[in-house]
Design a protein that fits this description.
It is a multi-pass membrane protein. By secondary structure, the chain is of the alpha/beta class. About 65% of the residues lie in helices and about 10% in strands. The chain is built from 21 helices and ten strands.
Length: about 600
Amino acid sequence: MLNYLSKVFYIIPSRKTRLIWIFLLFLFLSCLEVFGLGLIAPFLSLATEPDLIETNTISQQLYQYFSFQSKGLFVATIGFIIIGVFIVKSVLAWRIRVYILQFGFWVRGELCRKLISQYLAAPYYFHLTRNSAELIQQITEYTRFFAIDIVIELLNTSSSLMIAVAITILLCFNSLVTVLAILLICLPLVILLVFVRKKIRYWGKKATRSNEQMVRVINHSLGGIKESKVIGCSNYFEQQISEEADIYERASSWVFSVILLPRLIMETVLVILLIGATSVVLIIYQDITDLIAVLGVFALASLRLVPSLTQVTSGLYKLRSQSYTLERLYGDLKQLETLNTVSEQNPIVLSSARSFGRNLTNSSPPVLSFQKSIVLDQVAYAYPNSAGLALDKVSLSIERGESIALIGKSGAGKTTLVDVILGLLIPSSGDIQVDGQSIYKNLRDWQNLIGYIPQSIFLMDDTIEKNIAFGVREEEIDSERLKRAIHSAQLDELMADLPDGVKTMVGERGVRLSGGQRQRIGIARALYHERDILVLDEATAALDNETEGLVTESIRSLSGSKTMIIIAHRLTTVEHCDRVYMMDKGRILKVGSYQEIVVEGDLL
């Protein structure tokens, strides 16, 4: 349990001191509970035998000190005090529960922010090894499970445990028989917990993983809806969902069935003890006058004790069932912390981290500027857990305004080289310099110089305007800059044909636009952000010849005004480039003009 708690405290964001105040409130509530219940036994005794006021030292002193006129008024006053205590206790208990809920949902919100921040800041290779649906579920689902089923449940269980312990101590002062009764009530619950604790963790893991698989299947089926309809494989996805839903149903049913048991067991044992003990006394002694006060306190306390013990045992079962969720969140945060630690030990990444998240509109002068040339000097890179080098001492230079092309077979290292140039992958050796300065002095400033246009443009389900001004708040979009970007990307005709112009919704992943239109929006995006360097990663590979011609024309119109690095699939698209680099196995084999490398090399 200590290991479990240590992981919970590790995951909970800052401001953990709030937990101290919560536990102090728990302690105060427990004291009120005991004080109120502790007055019930004297009240019942005095109500049945008012003459006890004179024989009890404390009651006699209170009676004389406050100058009560009658014994009935004294007993009634004690009753009103008990009522007042229970009213205050009930209000405080409600307020504490509300505070626990607020704290739990605050934890969820902070954890969501923490995870998205760390996922976005994580090295690019981290995302190469992780499924985006899995990360989304961590942020949306696992944080909710952690907040509701672990944090809130743990606090409620702690509160109930403190109250249960306080009430048990009170009952023990009344009679040693009560101690035995409490043990008899708790014994079946302890036995049940011992026998099912491993099963609960197993069922909880099965339920969580089946839910995870359902989300993944839904992403696959709806993400490829066109292919699913054409191929006719809907039944395949339906069957997968059905199988996972059955697993989820069985596992969840077992977990919640066990959680329901504690209350039923305790109520049954409590009734057996209370009614059974009274019946035995009646048979043996024929009189229960002496037991009335004790039984009254025990009955009332038990009514409060049973819910508390139920909350404690059910809470323990629920916490156990969420062990898998806890492990997943803890593992992710530990992994991200390790990645950050490794990054901080790398001076290249450290310089970038200092500027991470700087707003593009920041008025502070950039550390890096591009006026003359970019030089890659003996750049090498190896992917984690890979034996060979993906890039092997690559060197090249690009003058401002030049266009270069990277060609080669699949696996030649073109995309890896571009990812290194983009600053997504950090080279294991070598350097990239712009105007004589290493880009790793401030990687953010370097990336602010680059516009990236991939083969498949990511478009939000939003307006064309917001997709071009990607990452900029709507009220901060510069309309003049937007118009220039649209014109340079040759989108004027499209905007004129659309009834809503730049306010037109593009649909999920831009389904309402053609491939060429999506690519030109990608170009407009890079131009809107006024980037000096454009990197095109097979930007026309998926287009037909006519559409490719339109996009290529948009690209050619930028020659001279923009420095371009182009990965080419169709070699005719790089005819206008100043130099062509042929790559193979992470090395540059040849460099020359389009005529020398492509035409004379008979690559067409």
